[in-house]
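G., before I forget:
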Amino acid sequence: MKTGTKFAIGVGIVVVTAGWLMATGIKQSGQYFLTPTELSRKIALDPAFYDVGMKVGAHVVPGSVQRDVATSTLRFTVGDGGATYPVVFHGLPPDTFNDSVEVVVEGRLQKDGTIYATDVLAKCGSHYESVPKKA
Amino acid sequence: MSLLGEFALWIAFLIGIWGAAAGFTGGRTGRADLQRSSRNAVFALAITLLIAMFAVEWLLFARDFNVEYVAAETSRNLPTFYTWSALYAGQKGSLLFWATVLSIFGSLAMLLTAPRHRIYLPYVAGVVCVVAVFFITVMLGAANPFARLPFTPPDGNGMNPQLQNPGMVFHPPMLYLGYISITIPFAFAVAALLSKRLDVDWLVAIRKWTILSWLFLSIGICLGMWWAYVELGWGGYWAWDPVENASFLPWLVMTAFLHSVMIQEKRGMLKKWNLGLILAAWVLSIFGTFITRSGVIQSVHSFTQSPVGSYFSVFLFVSIVLLTILYVTRLPLLQTEAYLESLVSREASFLFNNLMLVGIAVTVLTLTIFPILSELFTGNKIQMKPPAFNVVNVPLGLALLALTGIGPLIAWRRASIPNLKRQFAVPVAAGVAGALIVLVLGMRQVAPIVTIGLACFVMGTVVQEFARGVRARHRQYGEMYPLAFFRLIARNRRRYGGYVVHTGMVMLFVAFTGMAFKIETEASLKPGESVSLRSPYGWTYTFKHLGVSQYDALNRQVTAGTVVVSRDGKTIGTMVPEKRQHVDSFGRPTFQPSTAVAIRSDLREDLYVVLGGVVGGTETAVYRFTINPLVWWVWYGGIVVAFGGVIVMWPGGTVGSNRVASGYTAKLAAANAVGAGE
């Protein structure tokens, strides 16, 4: 066999393995990224769409945040103008979390209509830019 | 000042257009006057942009809050140190910084390029001008750092407290320097394509530039990890966030290039591949800016959405189309001079090294833009979490680590069996011994054991290479061992500097395994209460909460928790994590509260304590306690990598720096040929 062919086979093996690994990774940890409106539409279309891992990107509804520091439980509501969902999260929220930020909630929507979050990421407008306060 | 700055930008814009036109026409027609003019245009560009940059700094220090950028990034009580860095704390200033540094690098390329490579310079000037004009256009059109507000706020918004960290003063410019310096080799590649002078010459001309940009990227990425670790308080340093990936992609491609270029220099192979890598590295550096600035991908870092994204996407699209056309039309000129002779050869091991690096790059790129791809094809935005990245990149990374040890041991062209035995005996023994030792010590996870084994194997290779080189010099010239060691490195900077880089990479790989043994707990503690954690080394750490204190500092209100730490019952120290509320000069809060992590670091493990909050009105505090093994090795591995890069970069090297050198190098090359089977 020519060396070039052998090398091509080697490359093929590596590429196929990497591709297969990537497919596994995607299947295992890929998550839907939805807005509350998209989520409510999905539920309407597919009533079995509960207990699925997903990320929901939305605004925290101002005034909805209840913190219980003693049990480190955080309850709040997220919405995007179209639909709203209550969220329950156990753990430390990020520094930038407050009741006016955009958040990405990672977790599962349960039959009771609540999203049980495993992680809450807050997006400050950005790390590097900030909107000047309108004085 | 803002008028001066804006005026300078417009002048720079016109100079850039002239420089591009003169450069390309001058290169094509060979007209000496145009070539000279394009060269001068690059210098003039650098001067005008420096004036604009000076104007921004002036406004920042003058705290002219009528200027939008100044009001957005500074406040009256911002420390001087961070006023400097406010230049690149925001998008507008970053763009200006980028264009300025590019024009300075361009000028250096004009000045420092050896006379025999001058032929490329008109085109290089042209490319530099085109890229600079793009950045200036973005500034003038969508992100003008000199734009004024209709009113003057009494105080600025202040710098994001997360940027008020020494790491953040150096991390962005380092990354930018890395991104920007890719443009110079890229410009030479385009010059080579346009002028059809595609021999090995242009590779020699860009050698230092490629290492320089690789070095900046490496340092920038490490500083970014350090900043994420000490400042963000989530307990890790790498999360496969799109912004991190954007800096990692060009680094991977540059690393691949630095290796594969050796094959082209030695054997005249891989010409198409190498050119492709340089073009890809540059496109990725622009792409990285695009995805981070445009908000097309969800990231915790996401920058404010702005029209800047669309400028970048157009520029990116046009560049890719033009580069592809240029590349394809020149393919016939890039015939290889040799073919692969054996799979067991240095060439083959380098090819596989490239395959792994590019494979990792393709994986990271695919997974990063997966939300866009999946939305395009299925209508669902599907996001990837870190495990997806790890599933592919851990095996590929380990294969790469193995090749780091194999490559230097195999002969060029075709290795013989006796040669293989002689070369591999010691490193393989070291690797097996290393894996067995950690197995006996009780480590059970597969990936860390394999990593440790491979790390020992690579170190075996590195030590053997150094030992043989030193012994050869000792025998040949009767030098004392330490002298032989330093001369060995000094005379073969690229090769032995490369081994130093490998050593640093080994340290990093070992450090990464530490994250597999991370231990974490959260607790809400009243004063006097404590919590215990068992470290992977078998110690028991006890964290005792003493109390909460509150006080005002320069530009912030601080809430601090005091924790006494003891190991196996013996007190080892106090840790004071803080929660900070930054305020402006009128005492009004700016930004959300931020975290100051308390870290206690040693060679074996880090204790990492975050103050989550205080229960209102009491001294009960919520903490997160983390034990992160081997994090120290990430920082020091990074330093070793950078040090190795500097050795490779250092001017001089194999070309004689003293009178006897030429005789030396020849003899040493012969000695090495015997020693390493070259």
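The helical segments of chain A are 3-29, 36-45. DSSP finds two helices and seven strands in chain A.

More on Monday.
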